[in-house]
Design goal:
about 230 residues, six-stranded antiparallel sheet, about 40% helix, about 20% strand
Length: about 230
């Protein structure tokens, strides 16, 4: 059971940022395993169980990120990541193109939410086509999103909208190349206790209707065939 991250968790994250080399990591590997990886896994397990119980037929899995960077993609960086995250998602070869729940802990803070790391252009085209056909469900979801303070919509935008929005309320979705509904925060006290579990459960439950909407997009007709 997750009992909270520790000061050692934070010290390790800052340590690996400024000592991103094998010798330092090996000296502090036990700290990484017990104070960073293990609590992240325990937290991920609890939130996975919570979401799975809410959507038992969704075929969801839980993943915890590796601290090791892909040696083929270092681009001048050290071999280790300075943050860890867990995700809850449907298994897919292109996981970046599927809607995903996540929580991430970094040296400066933490974030969580639901969205795409890199949505496929076809997925976003299907989203626009669905809103064109019936804008009311997404308008309802957007009003709920705009009416709360925990999450914000973050988008990677096209330079120009791909089509005319069905309504002004939906305009941000029409500009989006990819998106996430997320919360970003500093290193708050709740991270060091079980308080973060309740906050994440409340947040993920709010996001479930959005997940339900987006996860079915792949089954929509290809708008290019219209």
């Amino acid at each position: 059971m997750f009992t909270g991250f520790t000061d050692e968790t934070v010290d390790f994250m800052w340590g690996i940022r400024f000592n991103n080399e094998r010798t330092w990591f090996e000296a502090y590997k036990e700290t990484y395993l017990t104070q960073f990886y293990q609590p992240m896994r325990e937290l991920g397990d609890e939130l996975y169980d919570f979401i799975r119980d809410k959507r038992p037929d969704a075929g969801l899995i839980r993943k915890v990120s590796r601290i090791y960077r892909d040696a083929r993609r270092l681009h001048g960086r050290g071999p280790y990541k300075e943050s860890l995250w867990f995700s809850v998602e449907q298994p897919s070869e292109m996981w970046t193109a599927r809607p995903t729940f996540w929580f991430e802990l970094m040296p400066e803070g933490w974030s969580y939410g639901m969205g795409y790391y890199m949505a496929k252009p076809l997925t976003m085209a299907k989203l626009r086509a669905r809103m064109d056909r019936d804008p009311k469900p997404m308008e309802k979801l957007t009003r709920a999103l705009n009416g709360q303070t925990e999450f914000v919509l973050e988008t990677e935008d096209y330079k120009k909208p791909r089509s005319q929005p069905a309504s002004d309320l939906l305009a941000p979705w029409y500009r989006a190349k990819s998106f996430a509904i997320c919360h970003n925060d500093k290193l708050t006290d709740e991270l060091f206790s079980r308080d973060i579990v309740d906050r994440l459960k409340t947040g993920f439950e709010f996001l479930l209707p959005y997940y339900d909407y987006f996860v079915t997009l792949d089954g929509d007709p290809d708008p290019r065939d219209a």
